[in-house]
Structure formats: structure tokens, C-alpha cells
Design goal:
The chain has 464 residues and is of the alpha/beta class. It is built from 13 helices and 19 strands. It is globular, with a radius of gyration of 21 Å. Bound molecules: N-(aminocarbonyl)-beta-alanine and zinc ion (2 copies).
């Protein structure tokens, strides 16, 4: 089955060309000017539209148990919403339960996705327990396509691991080529500040943010990079939220170290002042970790995206309904499940506020939301680029489409939007995933369960 997309503008991270694109089965067959319509069964007119490589969201939490509840989107609702927003691949997080094998968690997450995933998905493994005898288990997971592991420097007694464990895991990646992703916040110090706040009767959602100083993030980023330097391997900082933390990444990169970092739309567009201060319980909608920061940080993160000190924008999509799930922490901010929704809106927000507001070019937009995550997480050039031989994951993007983000119209299974009322210009019209039309004029038309598990390559730091 061949589909010819004619007259569009093809945008990759390194080029923009007006050309036709021919899909043959699941792959891109050809890109060139004036491919004759006779070669294809289906011909699509993309005049006035951009063709982008499908978005890759390298940080999602679907159907994830956390804080006595489970994130509200499962692999069906979450990946369907992602597709409508122009994302054709996610990398979700499986969680090793303490005292169990990582392999068990991998099987559990495969089952969660089975029959549900609407787009292709990879899995990172969250390591909570790594005895010396378990180090080679990491290598076994790499053989299963789990090319990255996340370790936590926060959440003591729940997910946090000590520096020795982090260092051993980093050293193991020198052998197996995987990438360590760090949740970098000094959890022990934060815990002391949190207990003090609670003792003073400070229980409202805003205290979640006020008890997690940016220095606690910067210190952990510094430590993570230092440990990676001693182990002689790259490291990737997830959900970086503040200028202080960014400065640590920049210093390391200026010294030539392979330190990488992502940020998320919420840290680029929302703040304590705008979304938490004076808003009482409403602030629970913005309780995630790291927390929202003061407004002064926002332009610094945009600078980071422009200067390539931040390489990726992902969502950290981890939705909990305001009505019944966030309510678990009504009298105590530490009991509010941490996380916020965003899987559907990443491309819209980055296109509007990044390209539309002149922060960066269309090519850089593509790099941040698709090409760089594909390279860093071992999916390139199967994903992350429009080129012959690559998967036909293609977004027909209408750069002039106006849309107002709202929980009333979004497709995520959560009762609020962090970006309620945000007006954006630019939206996905049609989406192809491995050659199948899965979104047509903004409506999902794909088949749940069509998404496949992606065996990612452990590249050992070969990014470019
Ligand atoms: O608050 C957040 N970010 N929840 C998801 C877990 C994590 O740390 O990424
Ligand atoms: Zn995290
Ligand atoms: Zn996360």
C-alpha cells in the first residue's frame, strides 16, 4: 500500500524543503520534487502544510502506581491523546519494585501496553534496588531494548537510591552502552525542610514548591554529572526546572562533558507566581517534582533550549485527577500525588511559544521534540527524521491552525489542564504512524493496540 503526500514542506532538524513524500507500507520510500501520482494508491494534498517527523515524548508515566493511586491515563487513553497532539512515539517508565527483578517490571509494563498502545513505545527502567549481583541484570535489559535507566536522588524511602548505587549503575553503562537518566534533587535535605514546614502547619499545595529549593536541584545535578565524569560515561538529567540547575549542565558541557538534559513545557510556561500563589487548593494541579519555579527562571530555560544546553523537551506526563486523586493531599501537601498532564499539548505549546514567539526556528523545534530524543535514546534514524528508509511517522502540521487548550476538549483522561485557556497557533491535522493514518483532521482513527514495543539501541554516547 503506497501513499503519496504531495506539495508539502518537509521539515527536518537540519533542512526545510518543498517536496513530495512517498510512503510504502510502514516506511518512507522516497522524498523528492514531483513524484507522479500514478505510483500510489492514495494521494494526499498537503499544500500549505508542514510535514514533521512524528513527535517523540521521551518521558511519560502511563498507568503508573504512585502515592497510593495510579496515573489516570493508561496506555490507551494516553497514547491516543499523544497521537492527536502529533506524538507518534513515547518512552515510558517501568518501575522495579524493591526486592524484585527489573525483568519482572518489564513484563508488567509490556502487559500494561498490550492491546492498548496506539503508538510505538519504548521503556526506560526505574532502578530502585541494585545489589552487586543485580548489575548484570541491567545488561539483560539492554538486550531487551531497554537502553536507558532512571535513578532517583529524591523521594527518600520510596524511590531514592544512594550515591554508591548511582555510581555503580553509571559504571555498568560503560560496559553495556545504556544511558543513565537522573531525577536530580537532594531528597534528604528536602525531606528535612518538608518536615519542618509540616511542623509549622504549612500544609497547602504551595509548600510543595517552597520546600524544594532550586539549590537542591543544582546540587544534585552537579553531583550526578560529577559521578558520571568519574565513571567516564554520559548522563541525562530529566525534567530540569531551574536556572541554578541549568548552570550546572552548561558548566559541564563547556568542559566538554557529555551531559544532557531535558525540560518540560510546564517549566517553560508556568510559575509559582502565576499558578500557585494566592490560589489555595487549586495549586494542587501544579504539584509535581521538581516543582514550578519562580518566573525569573523561565527565560533562562528558553535560553538553554536555544544554546543547546537543553537538548530535549518532553512532558513528564503523569496525570492525576483534581477531583478525586489530588484530593488525597487536601490536608497535607506531601500526600498530593506528584505529577501533571501534558502529553497532548507538547508540540502545540512548543510550536507556538518557541517558533511563533521567535525563540527558535522550525528546525530547532523538530530537533527538540523528535530528532534529539530519537538520537539520545537509540531510535535514530528509524524515528526522528523524515528520510528514505525511516518509519513513516509523519505529522501533517497546520502552522496556522488556532486552538484553545482546555480540559473540556482535550483527550487525556484527566479533569483539568495545566494550560487551561492557552491559545496556540499550530496544530497536527493528520498523523501517520508506520504508514497508517491514525489521526485524520484531529480525530483519532487508528486501532488501539497497534503500537509496538521499540527495542532501542544502547549507543554508549554516540549522539550525533
Ligand atoms: O512529579 C512528577 N514528576 N511525577 C512523576 C515522577 C517523576 O519524578 O518523574
Ligand atoms: Zn523524576
Ligand atoms: Zn517523570
Amino acid at each position: 500500500m503506497r501513499t503519496l503526500i504531495q506539495h508539502g514542506t518537509i521539515v527536518n532538524a537540519d533542512s526545510t524543503v518543498k517536496a513530495d513524500l512517498l510512503i510504502d507500507g510502514a516506511k518512507i520510500k522516497e522524498i523528492r520534487a514531483s513524484i507522479p501520482a500514478t505510483v500510489a494508491e492514495t494521494v494526499v494534498d498537503a499544500t500549505g502544510l508542514l510535514l514533521l517527523p512524528g513527535g517523540i515524548d521521551a518521558h511519560t508515566h502511563l498507568d503508573m502506581p504512585f502515592g497510593g493511586t495510579t496515573s489516570a491515563d493508561d496506555f490507551l487513553t494516553g497514547t491516543r491523546a499523544a497521537a492527536i497532539g502529533g506524538t507518534t512515539t513515547i518512552v515510558d517508565f517501568a518501575i522495579q519494585a524493591r526486592g524484585t527483578k527489573m525483568r519482572t517490571a518489564l513484563d508488567t509494563w509490556w502487559k500494561k501496553a498490550e492491546g492498548k498502545a496506539c503508538i510505538d513505545y519504548g521503556l526506560h527502567m526505574i532502578v530502585t534496588d541494585l545489589p552487586d549481583a543485580g548489575l548484570e541484570d541491567m545488561d539483560d535489559l539492554v538486550c531487551e531494548g531497554v537502553a536507558s535507566f532512571k535513578l532517583f536522588m529524591a523521594y527518600p524511602n520510596v524511590l531514592m537510591v544512594d550515591d554508591a548505587t548511582i555510581f555503580k549503575a553509571l559504571k555498568q553503562t560503560a560496559k553495556n552502552g545504556a544511558l543513565i537518566c537522573m531525577h536530580a534533587e537532594n531528597g534528604s535535605v528536602i525531606d528535612v525542610i518538608v518536615q519542618q514546614a509540616l511542623a509549622e502547619g504549612k500544609t497547602a499545595p504551595i509548600y510543595h514548591a517552597l520546600t524544594r529549593p532550586t539549590v537542591a536541584e543544582a546540587e544534585a545535578v552537579h553531583r550526578a554529572i560529577a559521578m558520571a565524569e568519574m565513571a567516564g560515561v554520559p548522563v541525562y538529567i530529566v525534567h530540569l526546572s531551574s536556572e541554578d540547575a541549568l548552570n550546572q549542565v552548561r558548566e559541564a558541557r563547556d568542559r566538554g562533558l557529555p551531559a544532557f538534559a531535558e525540560t518540560c513545557p510546564q517549566y517553560l510556561l508556568l510559575s509559582i507566581e502565576d499558578n500557585m500563589e494566592g490560589r489555595g487548593w487549586e495549586g494542587a494541579k501544579y504539584v509535581f517534582t521538581p516543582p514550578l519555579r519562580e518566573r525569573i527562571n523561565l527565560p533562562k530555560l528558553w535560553d538553554g533550549l536555544r544554546s543547546d544546553n537543553l537538548q530535549v523537551v518532553s512532558t513528564d506526563h503523569c496525570p492525576f485527577c483534581f477531583e478525586d486523586q489530588k484530593a488525597l493531599g487536601k490536608n497535607d501537601f506531601t500526600k498530593i500525588p506528584n505529577g501533571g498532564p501534558g502529553i497532548e499539548n507538547r508540540l502545540q505549546l512548543l510550536h507556538h511559544h518557541g517558533v511563533g514567539q521567535g525563540n527558535f526556528s522550525l528546525n530547532r523545534f523538530v530537533e527538540l521534540v523528535s530528532t534529539a530524543p530519537a538520537r539520545i535514546f537509540g531510535m535514530y534514524p528509524q524515528k526522528g527524521v523524515l528520510a528514505p528508509g525511516s518509519d513513516a511517522d509523519i505529522v501533517l502540521w497546520d502552522a496556522n491552525a488556532d486552538h484553545t487548550i482546555s480540559a473540556k476538549t482535550h483527550h487525556m483522561k484527566v479533569d483539568y489542564s495545566m494550560f487551561e485557556g492557552f491559545r496556540v497557533r499550530g496544530n497536527a491535522r493528520d498523523v501517520y504512524a508506520r504508514g497508517e493514518l491514525i489521526v485524520s483532521k484531529g480525530e483519532f482513527v487508528g486501532k488501539p493496540g497497534r503500537g509496538q514495543y521499540l527495542r532501542r539501541e544502547a549507543r554508549g554516547g554516540a549522539w550525533k
